[in-house]
Specification:
Elements: H1 2-21, H2 24-27, H3 37-56, H4 66-85, H5 87-115, H6 130-150, H7 153-169, H8 173-184, H9 190-193, H10 195-198, H11 203-215, H12 219-230, H13 234-262, H14 284-328, H15 330-337, H16 345-359, H17 367-379, H18 382-394, H19 401-410, H20 417-430, H21 435-461
Helix pairs in contact: 1-3, 1-16, 3-21, 4-5, 4-13, 4-21, 5-6, 5-13, 6-12, 6-14, 7-8, 8-11, 8-13, 11-13, 11-21, 12-13, 13-21, 16-17, 17-18, 17-19, 19-21, 20-21
Length: about 475
Amino acid sequence: MRARVATLAGLTLFILIPAVAFPQAVNEPIKSTGLSFEGVARGILGIITLIVIGWAISDKRKSIPWPLIFKGLLLQLILAVLVLKVPACAEVFRWVSRAFVKVISFTNFGADFLFSSFVDGTTHYSLLNFAFRILPTIVFFSALTALLYYLNVLQKFVYAFGWLMQRTLKISGAESLAAAGNVFLGQTESPLLVRPYLGGMTRSEMMCLMTGGMATIAGGVLASYIGFLGGDDPEQQLLFAQHLLTASLMSAPAAVVAAKLLVPETESYRSDMELDKAKMGSNALEAISNGTTDGLKLAINVGAMLLVFTAFIYMANYILGDWIGSLTGLNQLISENSNYDKFTMEFMVGYAFAPIAWLMGVPGADTVLVGQLIGEKAILNEFYAYVTLGKLKAGGSFATEKAIIMSTYILCGFANFASIGIQIGGIGALVPEKRGMLAKLGFKALIGGTLASLFTAVLVGMFM
């Protein structure tokens, strides 16, 4: 126990030293100029840092499968090169992104029909907001996903990607299918694909399933992020569609890497791959109806969480800034020495996580902003952090585009405290006898999902 505490203490100093030793990294603007020695070096430093963090809190350090770790990172690297640097593959991904953006546009027709005026057929300006433009996307994509699942279309993509994961990383069939399923489905839907395996899953396999759910996002939520970050500009929507789809794809092997770092496999497991044949409904219409209902629940949940979290943040900022900051003189000190006006939650998490952002290769001028987003995602949720990202982007707060893109990858995952309860409830309903194991692995899965998203962001940042 003492050795582990000492290791974590040393690791904390290792992370904080760059912010103290190199204060100019936070204050001097750095322009993104593409692939560079500094960018690659900072990226390698970031990868090493994340691996050391995973090693430090691993259950069984001596059992960590290092060949799998390096192969998983190599697979991520290959995916990044193919999507970002190989013209033919990049064009294919752009085509997929265009299709994704086009499908998103269909949601607007439904929203316009529902909220437009009966008199002149126009949508009132006040209704063109988050609730009536972004949240309906979740409902539509949930219904579309349910239909594709019923038609057995999604399963074919899941099986193909799962087969690739199993052959390259040498993991179990259940882990491969679950990791692939998380690219297309949410953290509560993906376990349905491997329902026959759940009862016999080892602790490491269950960790891999949970980490994958934390590290990736469902299609409906991803679609809403595209609409929110891209706004009404088709080019911006296409840009963020490419990056969000790439992030979701790359985070699948990253989740396996993080899971095996934290909870290495020490038991025997099944290597066969078999998808659950269960349908989303008895026919296509029922599947669409079920998907619509589930999407509506998710959209209402997202809207309610944003309302509550935003209110709590403003309440906390009132206490911190108007009371503590004003009485102690902190507000003036912060205003004169930072980009923040006063003592706030954003200020606290921004500077707390800025060293991690710097180690990941984020340009120095934007490390505090990216640190703020990392903190908001971990403490609150990714949706709130994406809202903040959208506001910072629209307000011109970032000095570099690289920081915006890296933030898009960092936030692309469900790794937050609320997800622990969601997974325990969702997966636990399928295998009640595993609830104890799920509860014990919950916090580690949160850390694993966060590490996976950071791995992906670092690798992508190296190529910018």
